[in-house]
Design a protein that fits this description.
Blueprint (H helix, E strand, L loop, with lengths): L11 E12 L2 E13 L4 E5 L6 H8 L7 E10 L3 E2 L5 H10 L1 E4 L13 H11 L5 H14 L4 H5 L8 H13 L5 E5 L7 H18 L2 E5 L3 H7 L2 E6 L2 E7 H6 L4 H8 L40 H5 L4 E4 L2 E4 L1 H10 L10 H9 L12
Parallel strand pairs: 3-8, 3-9, 6-7, 7-8
Antiparallel strand pairs: 1-2, 1-4, 4-5, 9-10, 10-12, 11-12
The structure holds adenosine-5'-triphosphate (ATP), iron/sulfur cluster and magnesium ion.
């Protein structure tokens, strides 16, 4: 194998994807009927509160949902690979790493404690039939160096000799080193301080552009998304409730949940009291409503129809929102805007004041 970068970003089409986990109360859905396209060559950010199904979605892209979970419906079509939900055994193992690079959540704990990082790198290369192992090591050192580490020293180290943040960067290196063209990063920088986090994500963005990748980044942090992602998917209760170009979703959020998330960001400039926490809690596996809208218990715009009818998919410009109120606004005014507060300026205001983020945008 050559590690020479070639530009061939794959498109990914997630259709009707559902995953259930077996519990004492039976099989319960963690994500339901998700439709999401990853546009070739773009970075898609996935945000949402804890338990909304972000990691379950990421694992599904690799067909890596483990028991007690299983993919119960849908497909994940990746250009050049086909439907990964149908891949099994050796085919699947080869696809992971070589075609799909990934960092699982809590990757800082996933290194083998008994082997040096370098040994694990060579194992990875051999298991994917990399002929030029020296080239692979060179590539690894280069990536580690770009992330501010002494590559040779890190490759010579065991897990316990590295800090959480260093391990996280090793995880990112391992996701990129085989030159996969689809990269899935689940909370890749949580163990890092704000400044290092911004630096690492900038490097992820650089490598993404140099190599022509398609990338999915999961994070809790809307500021991180505003910084790195071209497109944004907002998850709630196992569904993608709003998706579209990042500037559009953050600049003109339509779904009441996206609006609530933006309102909840404390501003570091201006009046900190302007931030309003989203009341209530997100549903758990056992409390996601089977009918109607998953967000209705916390929604100020809730209507009778939200109790019983699944929200319609409403297309607005280049974005999509699943919401009865958005549809009603579009029918009434010919526009899909509903009363709102919050927007891109608040995200930029919140993060930009730290000097970490450099996003520029105008609120429409
Ligand atoms: N192995 C499992 N067994 C049972 N339920 C699970 C399992 N893994 C996840 N779940 C449930 O599935 C739902 C989605 O979990 P998931 O980890 O995908 O959420 P997440 O958005 O990644 O959350 P976080 O931000 O905390 O990482 C949650 O209700 C979670 O409790
Ligand atoms: S569908 Fe209804 S409950 Fe759900 S977000 Fe829209 S208005 Fe609120
Ligand atoms: Mg997660």
């Amino acid at each position: 194998m050559s590690v020479t970068p070639e530009k061939k970003a794959p498109g990914v089409r997630v259709s009707g994807l559902s995953v259930v986990y077996r519990t004492s109360a039976g099989e319960l859905p963690a994500i339901s009927g998700i439709d999401l396209d990853l546009v070739p060559g773009t970075i898609t950010g996935v945000v949402g509160e804890s338990g909304s199904g972000k990691s379950t979605l990421a694992l599904s892209l690799l067909n890596a949902v483990q028991p007690p979970g299983r993919i119960s419906a849908g497909s994940v079509e990746i250009d050049g690979l086909g439907d990964v939900v149908k891949l099994r055994g050796e085919e699947l193992r080869k696809a992971r790493g070589r075609h799909i690079g990934y960092v699982f959540q809590a990757a800082q704990n996933s290194l083998n404690p008994l082997k040096t990082v370098g040994k694990q790198l060579l194992d990875l290369g051999r298991s994917h039939d990399v002929a030029d192992l020296r080239g692979l090591v060179r590539e690894a050192k280069d990536l580690l160096g770009r992330m501010g580490m002494d590559g040779a020293r890190v490759l010579d180290s065991h897990q316990h000799e590295l800090s959480g943040g260093m391990r996280q960067r090793v995880g990112i290196m391992l996701a990129l080193v085989l030159n996969a063209h689809l990269v899935v990063l689940d909370e890749p920088t949580t163990a890092l301080d704000m400044i290092t986090q911004a630096t690492i994500l900038r490097i992820v963005r650089e490598v993404h552009e140099e190599r022509g990748l398609t990338t999915l980044v999961i994070t809790h942090d809307l500021g991180v998304v505003a910084e790195v992602a071209d497109r944004l998917a907002v998850m709630y209760g196992g569904q993608v409730v709003e998706q579209g170009p990042t500037m559009e979703v953050l600049g003109a959020p339509r779904h009441p949940y996206t609006q609530g998330l933006l309102r909840a960001i404390p501003r570091l400039v201006g009046d900190i009291d302007e931030a309003t926490a989203l009341p209530g809690r997100p549903p758990t596996l056992g409390t996601i409503p089977e009918r109607g809208c998953v967000f209705r218990d916390r929604c100020v715009l809730r209507m009778d129809v939200c109790e019983t009818e699944k929200p319609p998919v409403v297309s607005l410009g280049a974005s999509i929102a699943l919401c009865h109120a958005v549809e009603a606004a579009a029918d009434r005014d010919g526009r899909a805007d509903i009363p709102r507060a919050g927007g891109l300026q608040e995200v930029v205001g919140a993060q930009g004041a730290t000097g970490v983020h450099e996003v520029r945008g105008e609120q429409p």
